[in-house]
């Protein structure tokens, strides 16, 4: 998809810069020895600002996906009408012109049909005009279908039968995609539920479990760490970045896999990945910040104890 900057893109970038700069001016300390955020909501505001800046580009991405689906649907209708005219004994170039003159609405495909008919009227060879038509749509299904028609026209086959076969093939592909999407709907809902349950577990660990373990007497923690971790039991480890990194990685790959299962491509999962990453990050930072658990610094021994507890429960 070709990137074209419009007014909405510049507006989104401007809003993002304003939010990020305001966030740094009022909620970030640059004083020597105190460099860092002043409030817990510095990071969520920063992420929201970046998201607002990227939102117009994300909308364009979703609009292009929707347009490609409409192109496939309207192409099926176009091929059917073309085949009916060819069966009456009209050549394909004349049939294309007649389809254009019929004034039928082909939605997003209409400009490409207009261009195809105009090129044929201006004397373009049929194969060249069809090739340009297929390239302009940037649709894989249309490219393959047009390639079949071109080869049939070169070999002198029954074009009416070929157009009928192409129409049936496109219809079958559409049915398979719709069936795959409907069958994967339950898995998609299940994937979202599992992800947000995972977020809940991370929040409980950061807000409740880690602070409680940090209150355990030093002797107990030292005993656990001495048994399983060896040296370095007293070192401090901040798990906040670990939790957030885990959420981002989990959301990214879970979203991409949902798109692969439901629509057959990883690019279709980008929207799921964005929803999961953004929602999970904001939930984690907001709830932990409101409950006063902005930092999850624990000793190495405590971290080892948590890991062992999780491992033992998983082994059961």
Structural features:
two-stranded antiparallel ribbon; 316 residues; Receptor-associated Protein; two-stranded antiparallel sheet; mainly alpha; 4 strands
Summarize the structure.
With 316 residues, this protein is mainly alpha-helical. It has 12 helices and 4 strands, in the order H-E-E-H-H-H-H-H-H-H-H-E-H-H-E-H.
Give the mean pLDDT: 80
Low-confidence stretches: 227-234
End-to-end C-alpha gap: 49 Å
Helix content: over 70%
- How would you sum up the global shape? elongated
The biggest beta sheet, please? Answer: 2 strands, antiparallel
Number of separate domains: 2
Q: Can you list the strand order of the major beta sheet?
A: 1-2
- Individual helix count: 12
SSE series? HEEHHHHHHHHEHHEH
Describe this structure in words.
With 316 residues, this protein is mainly alpha-helical. The chain has two domains: 68-181, Up-down Bundle (Receptor-associated Protein); 184-316, no CATH class. The chain has helices at residues 7-27, 42-87, 92-101, 110-121, 126-137, 140-155, 159-183, 185-214, 218-228, 240-263, 270-290, 300-315, and strands spanning 28-29, 36-37, 236-238, 297-299. The strands form two sheets. A two-stranded antiparallel sheet has the order 1-2. It has a two-stranded antiparallel sheet with strand order 3-4. Helix 1 runs antiparallel to helix 2 (42-87), helix 6 (140-155) packs antiparallel against helix 7 (159-183) and helix 10 (240-263) packs antiparallel against helix 11 (270-290). The chain starts with 6 loop residues before the first helix and ends with a helix. 24% of the residues are buried.
